[in-house]
Amino acid sequence: MANNFTYNYNQLLKQCQYVPMAIEEQVCVIYAGVRGHLDKVDPSKITKFEQAFLQHLKGQHKDILESVRSKNEITPETDAKLKEIVQNFVSSFKA
């Protein structure tokens, strides 16, 4: 399990050259990884998960991204919302 966690986390931290990820996007993706929500995601699908999850956040949960960006932290309220969003997304994710 530790090896999957390490691999998954390394995959989350990768970014395309010349296409940096916004800090609020990085925070939300890393949140999903370090909180253990990605433990059940196949390591070979982490990159697809990340892309789909960010698309989901940008399309349906801009308020979460805006909160993280403007407050420079995850507030307790944002934490609760983000936890629910991540759990729901992971359970429905199919790559």
From TrEMBL:
Gene3D superfamilies: ATP synthase alpha/beta chain, C-terminal domain (1.20.150.20). CDD domains: ATP-synt_F1_alpha_C (cd18113). One of its GO terms (cellular component) is proton-transporting ATP synthase complex. It comes from the Eukaryota. InterPro entries: ATP_synth_asu_C (IPR000793), ATP_synth_asu_C_sf (IPR038376), ATP_synth_F1_asu (IPR005294). One of its GO terms (molecular function) is proton-transporting ATP synthase activity, rotational mechanism. Residues 10-89 form the ATP synthase alpha subunit C-terminal domain. PANTHER family: ATP SYNTHASE SUBUNIT ALPHA, MITOCHONDRIAL. This is ATP synthase alpha subunit C-terminal domain-containing protein. It comes from Rotaria sordida.
